[in-house]
Amino acid sequence: MARKKKMKMEVVNLNAAGIDVGSKSHFVSIGQSKVKDVMEFGVYAEDLTTLRKWLQENGIETVAMESTGNYWQNLYIELISNGLEVILTNGKFTKNIKGKKTDVLDCMWIQKLHTLGLLSGSFLPDETTGKLRAYCRQRSKMLSLSAQASSRMQKYLKLLNFRLDVVVSDVCGLTGLKIIKAIVDGNLDPHELAKLRHFNCRKSEEEIAKALHGNNREEFLFGLKQDYESYLFFKEKMDECDKAIKEFVDQYFMSLADPIDDLPVAKPHKRINKNAPKGIDLNIVGYQYFGGVDLMAIEGVSHATILTLMSELGPKGMKKFKTGKQFASWLRLAPNNKISGGKVLSNKTPRGSNRIKIALRNAANAIGNLKDSYLTVFFKRIGFRYGRQRAITATARKLAMIIWSMVTKKEAYNPPEEYLFLDQKRKMGIIKNIRKKIAKLDISVDELGLST
User: Fold this and answer.
1) pLDDT confidence of residue 400
2) What is residue 401's three-state secondary structure?
3) Separation between Cα atoms, residue 61 and residue 180, nearest integer Å
4) I want to staple 37 with a disulfide (CB 3.0 to 4.6 A). Which of 5, 22, 33, 255 is the partner?
């Protein structure tokens, strides 16, 4: 009879604990005995303190827990602020357990995997970046809600037969909001409404008046009024978020021992969207926040991209990734190669996205609409072979690699050919023509009266 062979595994984390996080209770394991090593704790502040003290009394130094919803956050802060090392792991790495699935078995399984060093931690920003992330995510929610209110306003305008969307480019622009406010206040005269036209509006008063002959149905006017008030409410909350973000950024720079006093090159060519944070020059703030690295110099990178990188990663977040490839893989922008027997079974990009990936894909999409850019040439080459969607993903990955190199190595953006915007091209063209005329007429510098 053949003997069974046992394979021993090296213990990596000797004093380790595993926690199965729940909505109403947390199960904690410090060993593999169901009777002695497993305890259940509540979720109140007093219970979390008791849990932490129990771990410290048993000599626990490192803890692994699942990232279950938002229930882990208070426990994480309690443990990390009292000197314990905490690894937050994805639930998919701990779900393959043999036998019946219970909370007790789950916490023991997590403890066993963590003791053997088989669990990898999730990316978590530092406390300062976490605060900025909270402000920016709340602002993003208000922006989304205001966009939904704007969409509903357009629906009610169409039901009222006020075709404001035909005569103005933005219903929530200067002209559109003035007209909607007048309609809500009870002014339904199309000619009076057309007089509220902003002088920059391309359509004339006569054409706007033609578009504002409505059916004046009371139920639709009521809905328009409520959504207009909702839109103003959400915009007001966005302004409050902007003030909070500005105060936070100012306090952050005041707390730095060695702040960056240098300023980046102004970029008037990059338009500031109306939904961008007010009172904050993200060109300057982003340059100083990332230690003198001018990420706005990259074509396609907008103010929204900079704000997303600041709030989701922070100045030191990118240094947690050893290489740019790891950073791109974490963003799920790199192909997931599955190879068996020397044959590639699949090389699809993994599904799923986070805010940084969405921001980089938006920047890549903007790059695809530019002309004569280094990254645009790369975009079009990929797009010609595989289509626009794969070109966006490939360019977003390239942007991630460039940003990682610039931030971690403190390098300036140095493409093979510098991209010039339209007004820069015009300026260069004028200078070129002047030089030709000077050379043609053989005019010297002294004759021009210009100092060298």
Assistant:
1) 94
2) helix
3) 62
4) 33
Asked whether residue 414 is assigned to any structural domain, the reply reads no
**290 in Cβ contact with 318 (< 8 Å):** no
* pTM score of the predicted model: 0.81
For residue 447, the enclosing domain spans: 420-452
Please state the domain count of the chain.
4
Question: Which residue has tokens 């060519």?
Answer: 269
In terms of residues, how long is the chain? 452
Amino acid type, 373: S
Span 62-100, pLDDT tens digits: 999 988 888 898 999 999 988 899 999 887 777 766 666
In this structure, which amino acid lies at residue 337? Answer: N
Distance between start and end Cα atoms, the chain: 97
Degrees to nearest 5, angle at CA 104 with 101 and 106: 55
308 plus 245 within the same structural domain: no
Nearest-Å Rg of the Cα atoms of the chain is 29
Structure tokens at 77: 């802060």
Report the alpha-carbon distance of residue 196 to residue 209 in Å, rounded.
10
Highest mean pLDDT among 63-77, 215-229, 263-277: 215-229
What burial letters (b/e) apply to 153-184, b meaning 16+ CB within 10 Å? bbebbebbebbbeebbeebbeebbbebbebbb
Count, in order, helices (H) and strands (E) of the chain: 17, 7
Tracing tokens 């062979």 back to the chain, one arrives at 5
Residue 283 one-letter amino acid: N
